[in-house]
Design brief:
Distance between the termini: 60 Å
Strand content: 5-15%
CATH architecture of the domain at 4-216: Alpha-Beta Complex
Strand order of the largest sheet: 1-2-3-4-5
Number of strands: 5
Helix content: 40-55%
Order of helices and strands: HHHHHEEEHEEHHHHHHHHH
CATH class of the domain at 4-216: Alpha Beta
CATH topology of the domain at 4-216: Lambda Exonuclease, Chain A
Amino acid sequence: MMNHKERDHALLSASGASRWMNCNPSARLEELFPETTSEYAEEGTLAHEISELKLTKYTSPMGARTYNSRLKKLKANKLYKQEMDSYTDAYLEHIKELMMSFDKPAVASIEKKVDFSAYVPEGFGTCDFVTVYDGTLYVRDLKYGKGVPVFAENNPQLMLYSLGAFLEYSLFEDIVTVNMGIVQPRLDSISVWEISAEELVEWAEKEVKPNAKRAFNAEGDFVPGQCTFCRAKAVCKARAEMNMELETDMKLKGNILSNAEMGDILKRAQDIVKWVKDIENYCQQAILKGESVPGWKLVEGRSVRTFSDTEKAFEILKDKGIAEELMYERKMLTLSQLEGTIGKKDFNDYVGELIVKPKGKPTLVMESDKRAPYVNDVINVEDEFEKIID
């Protein structure tokens, strides 16, 4: 999935850096398949456009009439939801706090186009927000998704944006430090990471440049593991070979799997379910396009009845004496929906003291995950009884 910032279709996009830096030939392989979008991606693009407007109004002169007119047009989009206002406001507040922490005014750039082609062939991108103050380059990236938290530390996409900004701003500013941040308001997450400009350039020289060269020239080895947004993920033989090695590569002992063996299986097989689903989706689309997939066909699935004209149907029912309360269900909005409807500030002022955040359900992840380990708060009755006796 191409990031909204690379609409000009860079082969080695910053948003795909974690993929082409680790699996070099995948960049050219993806060229064989058309780019796709999704409602989630388009929703993210709309949220970025609203954020851009709000930041532009904050950082440069803009009349209320112009602002309201532009905002009205954005809100007319079919994907607009009222909660976007509060989430984009949260991003705006973060930027405001950053700018207000400076001792004197700093010039900010919104949706700043940057060029890092000195290290990545034809490499370019757009930073959501950039400013420089007292020897530090500040780069911020808005992530509107709510699937999983995205962290700034060693994030290649954010580092490439920062690299591009550094290469330009360092021409007229003495930049010593690079402060990078990812704001993910729908997860109430702000991740900030700071390194020296020297470290950033060293990473670009040692890690980015050689990998980008191999990727651009379709050289290097396929290394499955960054397949989620790869357009070739269903047909990639390297991925197939990796997943099919599981049954032949493991030497199991005894009749019962040990925890160590199950952990190893989970690690090896974590991509298998996704891989099979990707193949299934690919084959379905192929058959819909008139292609043949030997051994498989499409059939009509389960269908749900619906009215051809819902409004007319309800009018007829009301005319027949059916009470309206029998035809409608009163449903309370969720906390997030209420916050989006009312606005984050007012919502917190009114009922903030009543909001609690229960512990999330335990989720199994690999040890490399950056989140803190789950702590089981369940009290062991026997242990507690022993403490009382002692």
